Amino acid sequence: xxxxxxxxAPAPAQRWWxxxxxxxxxxALAFAIGRFSTFGAQSQxxxxxxxxxEAGFAxxxxxxxxxxxxxxxxxxxxxxxxxxxxxxxDIATGQSGQRGEMYDWLVQWGLPQSGEPMMTWMSGxxxxxxxxxxxxxxxxxxxxxxxxxxxxxAEISALEDATGQEADCLFLELMIRHHEGAIPMADALLExxxxxxxxxxxxxxxxxxxxxxxxxxxxxTRLGCG
Length: 226
Known about the structure:
- It is a single chain.
- By secondary structure, the chain is an all-alpha fold.
- The chain is 72% helix and 0% strand.
- It has 8 helices and no strands.
- The chain has helices at 12-42, 53-78, 82-109, 126-130, 141-147, 153-161, 164-192, 196-223.
- α2 (53-78) runs antiparallel to α7 (164-192).
């Protein structure tokens, strides 16, 4: 036997910080990729306007992604289910990267990160009609969040307080609804948009989150969630 000391496994708190650092690294990489790809797109034409579908999508999807990351990191921290833990990690890292890229689109286009009422950019699309975004008065942020399938403050608090299978099932319920709200947003940009990179990201979101809904419904069945 070797007398060399073995390196102790990282403590749970240390592992959590490793995950945070990975998330930041992924977001930074996507930020750099977004700057390069957007620069190339702008060199061939004018930047999207602040009321454009691309700008509205970038703003609203950042808000949407931020909550998904929050919920995914919460369940990643405390679930004992290996499959759900991997899925939560994938959601958190994937959406962190996309959020960073969308932030940079707006920077490169010289547009503010907020300002236009949520979902108004969807009003000319079939998805906008289906989500109630075509009225004369814009939706309030609370109404828009509900239309986009986002969790309420009370639901986020319940997820934070829940443990064990209750937490796993609540996360799956909330995240399935959350994903179902993102897909019409992606559809609206695919219908209304014209910028190549945002269209590519919208298709990636639609395809990826559709697959993740299927995976989450399978986990719900396996866990016996009500």
